[in-house]
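Handout, section B. The chain below has 256 residues.
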Amino acid sequence: MAKDQDALTAAQFGAHAQAYVQSAVHAGGADLAALTALAAKAAPARALDLGTGGGHVVYALAGAAGAVTAVDLSADMLAAVAAEAERRGLSNVETVQASAETLPFPEARFDFLASRFSAHHWRDAPAGLRQARRVLRKGAPAVFIDIVSPGAAALDTHLQAVELLRDVSHVRDYSVAEWRAMLRDAGFAVERCETWRLRMDFAVWTARIGTPAPLAEAIRLLQHKAAAEIRDHFEIEDDGSFQLDAAMFLAVASEG
């Protein structure tokens, strides 16, 4: 029987939970360092990591917040994060299994929120952002980090295609303009947006999520057949490794 989107995402990532806990791409980066600094400045009483994945935001927030709640669809992923938090001696971390669109928390429960490399898996990103705003205290900071679409149609089509072939739970990488509109409509004011490039090592990128060999081969065929402007933008290398666009939105819960 076919799974619904949430079940598909939970199954995909639950099966590879430890790979994401140990992922070098997710465990480091200037964006994670910036997020850690923002949390230290805010010193929140209650922080929320929305779509925790391997838990790297949780580990970063735990030193600054009174308590940190990690939310994810996958029970296996949450178990791996809880075990890693215990191994690191982080006693202020709790885990909650839920979707971004149906958060089981009262209004204004948190005074800091972060979501990193998660929203492109949400079945309804605008609804997830509305929920994020609902559970965040007015005036509190929120940080959203994700892979973003370059925007141009041909580039966008290529990106979504390779993402879906690599991981069947992929929904959409949104453009910076789409992100700004969704955040505004959800009741956030974007104070700053920073963008950068991330190199994806093809072998590591596909192994981390367990991409079946025929689908990995299909990605390589798409790359090989791609137009010159697509190959140039994504800086596709001979082994399939390439560059992705990423963005960090620093926002404040402003309305409602």
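Note. The two ends are 41 Å apart (CA to CA). Compare this with the example in section A.
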